[in-house]
Amino acid sequence: MLKSNILFIINPISGGKDKLRLPGLIDAHLDRTKFNANFAFTEYVGHASEIAEEAANKNFDVIVAVGGDGTINEIGTKVMQQNKVLGILPFGSGNGLARFLKIPMNTVKALKVINNYQVKLIDTATFNDKCFFNMAGMGFDAHISSVFAGNKGRGLSGYLKLGLREVLSYKPQTYRIVIDGSEYVRTAFVISVANSSQYGNNAHIAPTASVTDGLLDVCIVKEFPMYKLPVLAYEMLNSKTDSSKLVEIIKGKNIHISRIKEDAIHIDGEPFFMGQEIAVSVKPLSLNIITPDYEV
Ligand SMILES: Nc1ncnc2c1ncn2[C@@H]1O[C@H](COP(=O)(O)OP(=O)(O)OP(=O)(O)O)[C@@H](O)[C@H]1O
């Protein structure tokens, strides 16, 4: 059998975990009868994307994102453009897409999934000119990721501390949302457009989302009094937001969101700044990705 050339692109800062000894661990567990392995460490924001583009142009068949959803985004965009195969070794703070796909959080077990090499096509989406794979949106979560980006400490506890501080001062905004031709005007705390069901850490904002249905779930988190925050957290952690009084979910293919001002957005948890008008579209079954055997 012809061996595949596989490149592991490792984000050294994602999830706040040390990864210096990771190439050795991968070497010990990767099936050498199937793969020739190479490794690269990213040195700055956007570097994973550059490395992935170069590798896809050369003779790499499989490129593995070693990091979280931001790393997957940079690499997945290039892998998709060049019609190669994406693998994931989850090493992020939240690991939304990896958890949704049921890729094990344990590295040795996740390597077994790569060795098993079941490739599946999943939907991706665009948010104006940017691709996303897991979740993109605006409102409080975008605000939080833009503030978090300026913070030194990563990891879940840093996120939670910052979130609690910011939640008290954040003011919901009014949006005009058109979903496949139907108009909705809503004052929202958050608008999330979901490909998978969760942000990460099993916080499910869109419990019935599928990455193979050709649809996105527009999740509108309504304005609510802060004492109801634990209710929302409970509903997310127990996949109950589809019957929540705090969240409205509308599925669609083409979404247009107009807002009152230019503002922060997030793409797979990474902050950007965009104008008032945002167009979101699904690209059905557009990315080859290695998943476990079982259905997702
Ligand atoms: N060497 C580096 N120094 C600083 N930033 C980097 C470096 N390499 C990659 N990055 C950036 O790190 C960001 C965060 O990566 P990623 O999303 O994978 O981790 P995370 O935020 O900890 O996890 P998750 O998205 O699952 O919560 C990405 O935007 C990526 O561009």
UniProtKB/TrEMBL annotation:
The keyword Iron does not apply. Residues 1-131 form the DAGKc domain. Its cofactor is Mg(2+). GO terms for cellular component: plasma membrane. It holds the Pfam family YegS_C. GO terms for molecular function: ATP binding; kinase activity; metal ion binding. Keywords: ATP-binding, Kinase, Lipid biosynthesis, Lipid metabolism, Magnesium, Metal-binding, Nucleotide-binding, Phospholipid biosynthesis, Phospholipid metabolism, Transferase. PANTHER family: LIPID KINASE YEGS, SPHINGOSINE KINASE. This is Diacylglycerol kinase catalytic region. It comes from Pedobacter heparinus (strain ATCC 13125 / DSM 2366 / CIP 104194 / JCM 7457 / NBRC 12017 / NCIMB 9290 / NRRL B-14731 / HIM 762-3).
